[in-house]
């Protein structure tokens, strides 16, 4: 199949990639509805910022503990089978949450189910990260990553919006958990139909040595280390999304429908940015673009934190999403182009730890600070922290500012 260099739609001409993209949309849509539901339900039941923060903590613990072993498993065993097993386990946990929601079960069991979701994701993420390289050739990784981001962001728009409307109308969230379980099963079926090229598996080796290999690769590849470190701390400190239920009820007073709009706003911005990136020529100054994007992310976070106007708040959230999308595309493309096939699972597992720490611990950190000092202080201090992190990364990793195009693998390792 001939591929035009600047054809943004080239990945969509591969049937396996279309299957993967459809599955990603379904699971992302369900996941966004799911996040809305658990945050809304816990806030209404507890009125506690601490309870919201615990949602992130219980899901990140298994990611931190299990990601390295999960990466080893992904590089030594059938990756599609691992994805299917993990998705089915995730579906079982979602059904457990549905039952607990319907019966008003104890919070301890809700957190236990969320812990189970974290375990499933710890094994699912490293294995599922290898699916994209099986469906398109390497020269399309950048464009395929952008389409992945676009579909995820579209799901992130429609998911919270639909959840806000439905929860506002039916005044309960049980059906959202059931839908999440169904989405996991559907994704498992779609994965089974992917027939793409088989990636090389690693040779059998001592488990501990194998797990360390992923860490060594990250350590030695300075630009990747800089990109994921920057993203981790930016999201860790800029975790305003975790506090949106509080902003919806106490700060802006816009209810469930307003919360749905605010949850969707970052994804609207990200979708517009992803569509723009897909139709532009390849980046020529990717490193500097990333540094400026994260700086803007911090500034928009500060403005959102102090805003008492709903329209301005939604606008800042959209800007946050657009700038974060730049970081996602650059980081994801670097990982795809620089990682050997036989190490994709282990490298992805290390990346999962960074992502898990940023997303889930960011939610926990925001909840704790909001509980002590209020939501406005939590968000504004996070934005300031994000800007300081950019300055630190630019100083510690000068290679970041020198990163040029993402399309052609560059000699990024210092060894």
Tell me the span between the first and last alpha carbons: 36 Å
Q: CATH fold name, please?
A: Growth Hormone, Chain: A
CATH architecture: Up-down Bundle
Integer average pLDDT: 80
- Rg for CA atoms: 20 Å
Number of strands: 0
Which descriptor suits the 3D outline?
A: globular
Provide an overview of this structure.
- The chain is an all-alpha fold and 415 residues long.
- The protein has one domain: Growth Hormone, Chain: A, CATH 1.20.1250.
- It is 80% helix and 0% strand.
- It has 16 helices and no strands.
- The protein has helices at residues 15-46, 49-76, 79-103, 107-128, 131-135, 141-170, 174-193, 207-220, 222-237, 244-251, 255-279, 286-306, 310-338, 344-373, 375-396, 398-402.
- The longest helix is centred in the N-terminal third of the chain and has 32 residues, at 15-46.
- The model is unreliable at 199-206 and 408-415 (pLDDT under 50).
Topology:
Layout: H1 15-46, H2 49-76, H3 79-103, H4 107-128, H5 131-135, H6 141-170, H7 174-193, H8 207-220, H9 222-237, H10 244-251, H11 255-279, H12 286-306, H13 310-338, H14 344-373, H15 375-396, H16 398-402
Helix pairs in contact: 1-2, 1-6, 1-7, 2-4, 2-8, 2-14, 3-4, 3-7, 4-14, 6-11, 6-13, 8-14, 9-12, 9-13, 9-14, 9-15, 10-11, 11-13, 12-13, 12-15, 14-15
Question: Could you give a quick summary of the protein structure above?
Answer:
The protein has helices at residues 15-46, 49-76, 79-103, 107-128, 131-135, 141-170, 174-193, 207-220, 222-237, 244-251, 255-279, 286-306, 310-338, 344-373, 375-396, 398-402.
